[in-house]
Design goal:
Blueprint lengths: L10 H26 L6 H28 L11 H31 L7 E2 L3 E2 L8 H35 L13
Antiparallel strand pairs: 1-2
Helix pairs in contact: 1-2, 2-3, 3-4
Length: about 180
């Protein structure tokens, strides 16, 4: 089934969820490795690759949000408490907002480098830079990008913990219905 039902996520929503999740985890991990462990001499190509993944992620996230706007979200289990429903809603909104903010600050930062970094969407389409070289702006954006990335990582850990709580403690189908059935 492509579309969501009242009780299950459809294959389109599941695909968006897992592809975006994989790209976010990869991007955060790669960004940390790139800035902390990689040799400084070759970083330009690493930044270029990282930013291309960021553009891909931003595009897919926007498509995911469009899909979510037109495809009804499955209902929470009936035994869900009000605070759990509120926490789920707030955390999902924050996941989207933080992911968008990380992508956008990265995009802004690329043009602010002393030598702007060109990157592509899906390796095919050049993405225009929206800032110009500016050292202080670059430094500010880099710090904001880093902090937002770590905040996103913390929220992902909470999201995963909540899904595991639903599966192992509450024993409901929240996790199973986002996973691929056999």
């Amino acid at each position: 089934m492509l579309r969501n039902t009242q009780t299950a996520w459809g294959s389109v929503a599941k695909s968006f969820h897992w592809v975006v999740a994989a790209l976010v985890i990869f991007s955060i991990s790669y960004g940390w490795w790139m800035t902390h462990l990689a040799a400084r001499a070759g970083r330009l190509s690493l930044y270029q690759f990282h930013s291309s993944i960021g553009y891909d992620l931003l595009f897919l996230l926007l498509l995911r949000l469009c899909w979510r706007a037109i495809d009804a979200v499955p209902a929470m289990p009936q035994n869900t408490r009000r605070w759990e429903h509120t926490a789920a809603h707030v955390s999902h909104v924050l996941l989207y907002v933080l992911t968008l903010a990380v992508c956008i600050t990265g995009w802004l930062m690329l043009g602010a480098f002393s030598r702007p970094i060109a990157a592509t969407l899906f390796g095919l389409f050049p993405v225009p830079l929206i800032t110009t070289p500016d050292g202080p702006l670059h430094d500010l954006l880099e710090e904001v990008h880093r902090i937002l990335s770590y905040a996103l990582l913390v929220l992902i850990v909470i999201h995963v913990a909540a899904a595991l709580r639903h599966h192992f403690i509450k024993r409901n189908d929240i996790l199973r219905r986002m996973w691929w059935s056999a």
